[in-house]
């Protein structure tokens, strides 16, 4: 194991775990949030500190259910009342850590459990639950520290959170339960959790009833008690924690918050024996660390799969944006083909233009000689300018209306999506409307399109075989005729090939030829669709920014988690 590379790999994993949130309420999300927090806390509280302080004492965390006697056991092992006991539950509200005096400074200032404050013992009467009370005791050998954690079945949620947090920071987790409560589901949930998280486990079955043993000797374990111990052992095997070191403490008197010395002899001998033997202590510590790192092989990929579920929801929301604007673009495309734009002001201006002779004046046979000033640009007739302005205004209104409909549809689709409510929470109504700058962009796009059509007429309309070669014409006026044809003049339902129909089509076909006209019409329509598509893409970006701002993970996050798992394996 190359420690430097391992620390770097674990630090990178820690950064990845803090780079995303589980915001969407998909199935399994609560478990995923808890698993992510456990991984991050275990890296902060145990794995990284342990790697960087390999010679630190072995930390034994005592965990258990309410009334199991954890504090009493700690007091007995230490030989003094250092942790509160009594009938009032819970008695352990703040974690109590007892260690040899030589290690007090390390636990006060060291890297273990960096998120918890430190208080020198004895414990004050009133203390915040996130404070770790450090007490020195000559009764413990160097190399051993005992930590009395809050009950994991406490009615106080923060006690449960501290119990699980401290369990994940243990070199050895000693689970204390009673003969009356060992079958409780939460005991086995915590044991299973400890196993999955890589902890080295010991178990203490306390308050085992005493009976009359062989020969009537009082204080011995009777048959009923033996049955309890055997059943407890079978349950350990069934839950795949049968390799845990096991101890029993009989029901007995408690004086000055301590058990009789003889009831804890086996536990004391085991803990002190491991702590005092450097090799044994290092084996326990290294085995636990290795098991924790082994657990990352499954825990991190499982978390990545949960992130993928969030990414999938984000992708579905993004697809809703694409679908809404795609539908709006298709409807707009149809509206620019079927003649629906050619009503009201646009139709009136066209009729003015076509019916007053301006259309014919835009065309005339070329003269053999050109005067010196014949190439000068003539000012377009007022009716030409009015028609151009009406077309521009009508097309702008149509695009704005379609974009508004697209935004409304995105919001409606998101509200119908299971994840949409979370993303839209706290958003104002403005997200369901077009952006404030769209009107300016639409005006610029439509004007540019009209200029593009005029340029097509100028550069591609005159071919060797076209009548346009022999006719002088006003490119601006003729470009408007092409636009009228493209927008479906003469039909309310179906556009003919090339988007032209009726009078404009016949006129332009006669002027440019069918092939040239088809080419110009296709290019003009494709250019219009492209410009509108870009406008809609810019509008859709707002919704992508909403997804980004909501903190939803993208597809790179699970990939980085898988990569972090691989890098960790390589570093090991």
TrEMBL record:
Swiss-Prot/TrEMBL GO biological process terms: ribosomal small subunit assembly
Gene Ontology cellular component terms for the protein in this record: cytosol
Entry's Gene Ontology molecular function annotations: GTP binding; ribosomal small subunit binding; rRNA binding
Source superkingdom: Bacteria
InterPro entries: GTPase_Era-like (IPR005662), P-loop_NTPase (IPR027417)
Protein's name according to its UniProt entry: AAA family ATPase
Protein species of origin: Actinomadura physcomitrii
């Amino acid at each position: 194991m190359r420690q430097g590379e391992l620390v770097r790999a674990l630090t990178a994993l820690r950064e990845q775990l803090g780079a995303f949130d589980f915001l969407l309420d998909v199935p399994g999300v609560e478990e995923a949030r808890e698993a992510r927090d456990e991984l991050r806390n275990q890296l902060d509280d145990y794995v990284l500190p342990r790697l960087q302080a390999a010679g630190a004492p072995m930390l034994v965390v005592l965990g258990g259910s309410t009334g199991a006697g954890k504090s009493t056991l700690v007091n007995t092992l230490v030989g003094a009342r250092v942790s509160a006991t009594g009938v009032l539950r819970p008695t352990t509200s703040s974690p109590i850590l007892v260690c040899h005096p030589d290690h007090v400074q390390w636990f006060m200032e060291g890297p273990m459990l960096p998120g918890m404050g430190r208080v020198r013992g004895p414990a004050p009467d009133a203390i915040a639950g996130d404070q770790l009370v450090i007490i020195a005791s000559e009764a413990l050998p160097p190399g051993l520290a005992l930590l009395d954690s809050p009950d994991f079945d406490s009615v106080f949620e923060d006690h449960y959170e501290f119990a699980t947090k401290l369990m994940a920071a243990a070199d050895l987790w000693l689970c204390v339960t009673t003969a009356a409560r060992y079958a409780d589901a939460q005991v086995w949930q915590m044991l299973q959790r400890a196993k999955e998280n890589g902890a080295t486990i010991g178990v203490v079955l306390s308050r085992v009833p005493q009976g009359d043993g062989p020969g009537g000797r009082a204080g011995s374990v009777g048959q009923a008690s033996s049955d309890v111990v055997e059943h407890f052992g079978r349950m350990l095997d069934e839950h795949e924690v049968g390799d845990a070191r096991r101890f029993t403490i009989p029901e007995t008197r408690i004086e000055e918050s301590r058990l009789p010395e003889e009831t804890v002899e086996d536990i004391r001998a085991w803990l002190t024996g491991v702590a005092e033997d450097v090799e044994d202590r290092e084996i326990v510590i290294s085995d636990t660390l290795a098991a924790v790192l082994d657990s990352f092989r499954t825990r991190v990929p499982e978390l990545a799969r949960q992130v993928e579920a969030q990414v999938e929801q984000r992708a579905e929301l993004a697809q809703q944006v694409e679908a809404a604007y795609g539908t709006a673009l298709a409807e707009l495309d149809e509206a620019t083909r079927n003649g629906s734009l050619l009503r009201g002001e646009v139709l009136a201006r066209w009729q003015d233009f076509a019916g007053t002779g301006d259309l014919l004046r835009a065309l005339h046979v070329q003269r053999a000689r050109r005067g010196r000033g014949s190439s000068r640009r003539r000012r377009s007739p007022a009716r030409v300018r009015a028609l151009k302005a009406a077309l521009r205004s009508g097309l702008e209104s149509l695009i704005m209306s379609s974009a508004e409909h697209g935004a409304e549809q995105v919001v409606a689709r998101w509200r119908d999506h299971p994840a949409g409510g979370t993303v839209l929470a706290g958003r104002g109504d403005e997200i369901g409307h077009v952006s404030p700058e769209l009107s300016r962009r639409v005006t610029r796009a439509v004007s540019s399109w009209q200029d593009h059509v005029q340029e097509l007429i100028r550069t591609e309309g005159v071919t060797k075989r076209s009548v346009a070669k022999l006719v002088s014409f006003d490119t601006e006026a003729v470009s408007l005729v092409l636009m009228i044809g493209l927008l479906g003049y003469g039909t309310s339902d179906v556009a003919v090939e090339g988007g032209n129909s009726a009078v404009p089509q016949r006129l332009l076909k006669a002027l440019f030829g069918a092939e040239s006209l088809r080419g110009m019409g296709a290019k003009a329509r494709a250019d219009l669709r492209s410009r509108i598509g870009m406008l809609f893409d810019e509008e859709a970006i707002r919704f992508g920014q909403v997804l980004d701002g909501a903190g939803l993970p993208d597809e790179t996050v699970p990939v980085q988690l898988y990569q972090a798992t691989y890098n960790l394996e390589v570093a090991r």
